[in-house]
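Quick one:
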Amino acid sequence: MNKIQKSAIITGGGTGMGAATAKRLVQDGWSVTIFGRREAKLEEVITQISKPAQTLAVTGDVTNREDVKRLINNHLKKFGRLDGLVNNAAVVVGGPIGDVSIEDWQKVMAINVEGVFNTINLSIEHLKNVKGAIVNVSSVSGVRGDWTFSPYCASKGAVTNFTHSLALELGAQGLRINAVAPSLTDTEMASFVTESEAMMAKVRNRMPLGRAAKPEEIAAPIAFLLSDDASFINGAILPVDGGVMASNGQPNFTE
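Output:
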């Protein structure tokens, strides 16, 4: 008997953690559809994977429900089933709360929260049919606070508790949902930190492993949570943070 070819949709799949997850899943035998707003970035990932039968790129915006419907339809047309969903698309906005515009607040909430709702809401019946799995990309900022990044923290906190709530609702139907909570990761979105020596010095002082994560180091736990090896894990928020949340927040008095 031939092994079932599982397939997944990955939002924000053109760069960073999304691209790394697509590559990891194909390596593990999955077929993947990557979704994002920049066609050139998506096509670059597809070219790098170099397995056209197992990959598809769809351009669109997670805040646009018609785009998400088209994404799901195109995925099913090519692969016939949907076993996994990775909600990775996100933006970051920071600054003192008095300086945050309502437009910036709404943008963060639309992409980081409403986008996750859209993909789950519109794909849930297909995932239920195969007792699939969802992995949301939250953040350590969705578990604890950051200075002057309250819109981003609020949005990721929503993703964290949305994950908890859906795990209760969907678990009895055989559909698992979990989240990963990365800390600083070397992606395009975090380049304002990773490309600054002054900021990275602060990271090395605060993070036990002393560096940013590589996207591949986030992709691996995502792939695990989608896999059958995680068949009894539901509602977990997995820190992939180099030890950041192991701290109680006090300074290192030994230095």
